[in-house]
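REQUEST ID: PR-0412
SUBMITTED BY: lab tech R.K.
PRIORITY: routine
TASK: structure prediction, single protein chain
INPUT:
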Amino acid sequence: MGKGLFITGTDTGVGKTFVAGLLAGLLRARGIDVGVMKPVETGCPRQDGRLEPRDALTLKERAGTTDRLDEICPYALEMPVAPSVAAEAAGVAIDLDRITGWFQDLAARHQLTLVEGAGGLLVPLTDTADTTHLIQKLRIPVLVVTRTSLGTINHTLLTCYWARQKRLSILGVVLNSPTGPPDPAEEANLEALAARLPTPLLGRVPYFPEASYDLSRVRASLDVDRLLALLGHP
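STATUS: complete
OUTPUT:
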């Protein structure tokens, strides 16, 4: 079976899908067979009468995989709210054991499978389980994506603290600039964050204008070699 990596965020809107897609593209460019999974996606619009999980579609495209979309995203939900709320509104029961089985099927086909979560570690998936519980079931390490704006020190350190309390294995943190380049105050904040991180800083993704996608610009911004070494990938 191949290896897995769970990509979480410190909040919604930090650019998890963008970073996961870039990582999938960089790994694919190295000749690594990459699988992707977005177990639960909310806020899916309807296209030709069917729900379209756009984050999952982005990951599928970046990885270049032929896996079916319903395998990549088994729970596509319409309401743009927390998964547990969206699932209840749709009359759907999210099953973490089934997600684990689907992940194992994907991981068996690929050298490395990237799993993108919904929001952060405490986002509820059911009445009794959140993203942390899912990661514990999957038994794969975590990459944390955080934004470069003010507030990131608190959000990032709290995420790392919670993960360590729950015995999750955090491989590292990636800084992303989803809305624009950091200003001088934010730059100073990032230096303070880097000095306090209890885990490696594995990259800093520059600001990309909306809908742009340029692997050449990000190649030097993500330490893929170190990430693969931490994963134990040959």
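NOTES: The beta strands are 3-9, 34-37, 40-41, 46-47, 50-51, 75-76, 112-116, 142-147, 170-176, 201-205.
REVIEWED BY: pending
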